[in-house]
UniProtKB/TrEMBL annotation:
Sequence similarity: Belongs to the BolA/IbaG family.
GO cellular component, one term: mitochondrial matrix
Domain of life: Eukaryota
InterPro entries: BolA (IPR002634), BolA-like_sf (IPR036065), Mt_Fe-S_assembly_factor (IPR052275)
GO biological process terms held by the UniProt record: protein maturation
SUPFAM superfamilies recorded: BolA-like
Official protein name in the record: Bola-like protein
Amino acid sequence: MDEYEKKIYGILKSEFEPKSLSVKDVSGGCGSMFAIVVESERFKGIPMIKQHRLVNETLKDEIAQWHGLQLKTKSV
């Protein structure tokens, strides 16, 4: 992971205490599009759309600078 991927990873790890977490820059290294997978107990009983909103809210300052996000969430 590059430094920016590590930053995003750290933010998500701190907020969601995930069982598994993947953060990948899929923009060819320019940091404008990411593929993120978060599996967390925090999502238990929450519909997927609300899970995505939680992640989007957590990363809102970063997402404002991106062109796109491929997001997958799953409860444990």
